[in-house]
Amino acid sequence: MFLYKSDVSMLRVLQPARMQDVMKNSSGAAEQNIKHATYGVVMQVDGKIVGLMSVGVVNDISHVTGAYSAHPESSSAHRDVVREMLEMFIGELGGKTAVARVVETRVDASRTAEIFTQCGFVMRSSTTDEIHMDYGM
Questions:
Q1: Which residues, given as ranges, of the chain have pLDDT below 50?
Q2: Most buried of the four, 21, 23, 82, 120, by CB within 10 Å?
């Protein structure tokens, strides 16, 4: 297994076939979030990409815009992939703050928000569509 920080928007353009398993299990917003990402975290197992986390940077604050995996959102494998990518992301922050947006229309948004909470994010606000979370603020 490899976890690495990468330009996921370029990866999407240059090697779309490698991202195919992740994208087929993700919402339509995943394509846009990855396209507009500043960078991201990629999880690879046996040469296949099994997880992508898109991150945008605005005013020196990292915004997690999505965490996607090749596994169904309701599975423990999906949650494990998201947790590992979040842990790497937090390790790369170097003490800086970050925010995350968890979309409520996803199949398991509450479980995904729970993973963010376990990794140190705190819920800032919630609407019927999404949960906004902060880290280190």
A1: none
A2: 82
Give the amino acid at 42.
V
Residue 50 in tokens: 């099994």
DSSP-derived letter for residue 110 is: H
Q: What does the alpha-carbon distance between residue 82 and residue 17 come to, in Å, rounded to a whole number?
A: 21
Q: Tell me how many degrees the CA angle 59-2-40 measures, rounded to the nearest 5.
A: 20
Q: What is the pLDDT of residue 80?
A: 94
Residue 106: its pLDDT value, please? 53
Domain spans of the chain, in order of start = 2-135
Identify the CATH homologous superfamily for domain 2-135: Gcn5-related N-acetyltransferase (GNAT) (3.40.630.30)
Beta-bridge partners for 4: 42
Residue type, 81: V
Please give the distance of CA 118 from its chain centroid, rounded to a whole number. Answer: 15
Q: How many Å apart are CA 135 and CA 129, to the nearest integer?
A: 20
Taking the CA atoms of residue 32, residue 34, residue 36 and residue 42 in that order, the dihedral angle to the nearest 10 degrees is 170
